[in-house]
Amino acid sequence: MSKFSHINADGLAAMVGVQHKQASLRTATARSVVEFPPDVISELYEMGDLRSPKGSVFQTAILAGIMASKKTGDLIPLCHPITLDHCQVEIHLDDLQRVIIDCTATVVAKTGVEMEAMIGASIAALTVYDMCKALSHDIVVRETKLMSKTGGKRDFKRPS
User: What is the pLDDT of residue 160?
Assistant: First the structure.
């Protein structure tokens, strides 16, 4: 028996069967971090948002993150397609002038929403890059990580 849930007894890729599980409330939050060169961030920052010639960077990234979260089952081959009950993307600059993107996804389902939160944060980060790349190609999408999840077999919370 494999320790990996998506590998069957024959060692082949397989979607996990959830037909025997009870639906429950599940929530996950993921975070992506985007770093800018200092001169670029000061050029873009205006009234609590980043503005590029393409428009509001934060608002565009929020919409992209939510849209992507809803498509997770189409993007990750063995991920169950689920209908999200809620998805929220929050974006802000931290004290180091990094763009911090948090995506929280919620569903009542037989399977978790970690991948939906991770996809939402990741695509929002890539959208920030796309909106700003004309100013610099030295923008770095630093990381995407699960911050917390509730529901399912066990809860998880990453220390801040």
Answer: 74
